[in-house]
Amino acid sequence: MLKVQFSKSLGGFSLEAAFSGADKGVTVLFGPSGAGKSSILACVAGASRPDSGRIELDGEALFDSASRIDLPMERRRIGWVFQDARLFPHLSVAGNLRFGLKRAPAGDTPIRFDEVVSVLGIERLLHRRPRDLSGGERQRVGLGRALLSQPRLLLMDEPLASLDAARRAEILPFFEQLKTRFGVPVLYVTHSLAEAVRLGDRMAVIHEGRVTAQGSLGEVVAQAGSRAQLGAALDGRVTRHDDQMSLVQVGAWDFRVPRIERSAGASLRLFVLARDVMLALDPPSRISARNVLPGQIVSIDEQEGQVLVRLTHDGQTLVCALTPDAVADLQLQPGMPAWAVVKSVAIDGLGGRLLSALEA
Amino acid sequence: MTLTPEEWLALATSLMVAARALVFALPLAVAVAWMLTRPRLPGRFILNALAHAPLVLPPVVVGYALLLLFGIRGPIGRILFETLHIRLAFTGGGAALAAGVMAFPLMLRALKLSFEAIDPGLDIAARSLGAGALDRFLNVSLPLAAPGVAAAAIVGFAACLGEFGAIITFAANVPGETQTLPLAIYAALQTPGGDATALKLSVLSFTIAIVALALSEVLARRAQKLAGR
Question: Which of A225, A255, A282 corresponds to the end of one domain?
Answer without folding.
Answer: A225
